[in-house]
Amino acid sequence: MKFSINRRFFFNKINMVSRAISVFSPLPALSGIWMDVRKDSIVLTGSDSNITIQTTIYKGEMNNLEIESTGSIVIESKYLSEIVRKLDSEFIDVELIDYTLVQISSPNGKFNLNGIQASEYPEINLERPENHFVLNRDDLTAIVNQTVFACGNDDQRPVLKGVNFHAKGKTLYCSGSDSFRLAYKKIELNEPQDFNITIPTKSLIEVQRSIDETIDAVDVYADTKKIQFIFDKTIFQSRLIDGNYPIVERIIPNQFIAEMRVDTQELAGVIDRTAFIRTDKIHVIKMECSEMVTRIKTASTEIGNSDEVLTDCVYHGDDLRFSCNGTFVTDALKALGGEKVRLQFSANQGPILISNPDDTSTLMIIVPMRSHD
Amino acid sequence: MKFSINRRFFFNKINMVSRAISVFSPLPALSGIWMDVRKDSIVLTGSDSNITIQTTIYKGEMNNLEIESTGSIVIESKYLSEIVRKLDSEFIDVELIDYTLVQISSPNGKFNLNGIQASEYPEINLERPENHFVLNRDDLTAIVNQTVFACGNDDQRPVLKGVNFHAKGKTLYCSGSDSFRLAYKKIELNEPQDFNITIPTKSLIEVQRSIDETIDAVDVYADTKKIQFIFDKTIFQSRLIDGNYPIVERIIPNQFIAEMRVDTQELAGVIDRTAFIRTDKIHVIKMECSEMVTRIKTASTEIGNSDEVLTDCVYHGDDLRFSCNGTFVTDALKALGGEKVRLQFSANQGPILISNPDDTSTLMIIVPMRSHD
């Protein structure tokens, strides 16, 4: 196994597949990158057994790849990545010099790394799942930014540790929820689809990070067990989370007793100023809403209390008093963006629907907290 | 106690004295800022009992300070600082509204914090020590950047946890050492002095951070127990470290068997590329020097090995082979700056003197490691 290649190009590819590799790998071989040098290409694979990333480098790309001999080896990803990143030459040589010893060399330096035999790398099924759709990079980014934050982190309810993709007809409904709040986003698809899967948040975040600005859209393939994102000679595969995702449409309120429109920045600022008070590490705020005045209060016997009035705020409907997690509201405002935000109240102590009045494709639902006064 | 003030000005002053405050304060009152509102000024004090920072805000500065009534209170620094930072108004009111309850208010919001009675704040002696000299901000910055990194962190030898300031005549010798390396810097003083003190590294770092670009020089007062830096209506006081500092002049070699001149960037790059190999978390490099070629090698049975040649390097003297801590060399190069660096070798396995050939006011000494091959 021997080849030479443009260092920067090679580094970017190593970096790409390294995203899948965990430092806490259960299998020693999985802490490495499987490098398979073929006649006209190099296939790099990284995996933590949940996420697998495989990319192929072809001769003739802008990478000056010259393959002298073929072969296959697994190399510890962190060392390989560090050496290739730090080398100061434009091109590097990579060669299997002795059994499992791999030499990476520049004109002045030789770096030898102990590898692992390729036969020890686990077999990973990268067969393509059946359902296919296309996702724009912008949509994928929006899904990650607008739903992942609301997902749970509780091993007792693993299904909430992912974002649910529910396709019905030409609409994809993406939901993230930790059972106290829900982030819900609609995406239009080109072709009708019918599936209901839950993707681990980590996988979604990593695939989004892997896709650079040169890529407009990715091909997505999914079945009930796994999902693949295909882009730039790369397969990004993730296992799905087993289990039935809650039917979120039942949670979204559609009748309201009151509505508030408020400047997003102002509401975010007022809530942020109450963050110095936390009760059991939770940032509890109390809202007192009437058509006369809306106040956000907070109190702790130990630290002190606060009381601030919203100025750029219009409120219609019943008087309301409730407590909720201020961080949840701040997260929702950040995810929505927009100058103005609308809060719709379904009942006293009932779920609150937060949305951008100009774009209702994304909805945030927050459940108030039981308060003790 | 009641006053109003420009919010940003007040925040900067709170921030300044907060630097002295530790989150792990032994005394509850020391987690707060002591705010003493007098007729024409406000005195803010923060302390962790080792470092004390006291700053005075006078009426008539560009701060719109209006004092309605005097008084004294201690307020938890992290809450005060967070509220004053986040408020969105240009001016704020601060008032003791009930026993120890302090109200900070803007036009739309009221924030009440539970304070602590001023009588519970410990007495801190801020009397001025006897010896006086002036230190330029640039010199202070250079001392921090060029000596602190070399200091020790071992409670067994507390004196090495500080930078030694040894004044003899019109020269101040500043030394940082962890006993395996020494950073040694000479500063010219305006007037002759005679003292030998050791300042905790934390204090030096904090005082340097506290001094902004508007301040050219600070007045320094010191005796055997404490040091004060005076600038911008602020006293920055630190306890000194007890104990005799080693006589560093004995360590600095002055006879050499070999000398190397090398491009600083290249040497730093070559050493950095060996950093993937660590033995018991230490970055051990092996240097092989001769007039023909200089190599930097490293090896580990587990990970692999490396071997790189220095190209922009001139070496005169005996052939040498030794091991040393690569991180120490990198730290020294970073502290020295300069395009070229000179390494002077006192003996085989003897201390190495590293300096910038154009500026010998700063010296770095590194002791090689015993190698087992």
TrEMBL record, chains A, B:
Domain DNA polymerase III beta sliding clamp central: 135-246
Pfam families: DNA_pol3_beta (PF00712), DNA_pol3_beta_2 (PF02767), DNA_pol3_beta_3 (PF02768)
GO cellular component, one term: DNA polymerase III complex
Statement: the UniProt record of this protein carries the keyword Signal: no
Keywords: Cytoplasm, DNA replication, DNA-binding, DNA-directed DNA polymerase, Nucleotidyltransferase, Transferase
GO BP of this protein: DNA strand elongation involved in DNA replication
Molecular function terms from GO: 3'-5' exonuclease activity; DNA binding; DNA-directed DNA polymerase activity
Membrane-spanning segments: none
Subcellular location: Cytoplasm
Subunit and interaction comment: Forms a ring-shaped head-to-tail homodimer around DNA.
Job of this protein: Confers DNA tethering and processivity to DNA polymerases and other proteins. Acts as a clamp, forming a ring around DNA (a reaction catalyzed by the clamp-loading complex) which diffuses in an ATP-independent manner freely and bidirectionally along dsDNA. Initially characterized for its ability to contact the catalytic subunit of DNA polymerase III (Pol III), a complex, multichain enzyme responsible for most of the replicative synthesis in bacteria; Pol III exhibits 3'-5' exonuclease proofreading activity.
Entry similarity comment: Belongs to the beta sliding clamp family.
UniProt xrefs under PANTHER family: BETA SLIDING CLAMP (PTHR30478:SF0), DNA POLYMERASE III SUBUNIT BETA (PTHR30478)
Protein name: Beta sliding clamp
Species annotation: Catenisphaera adipataccumulans
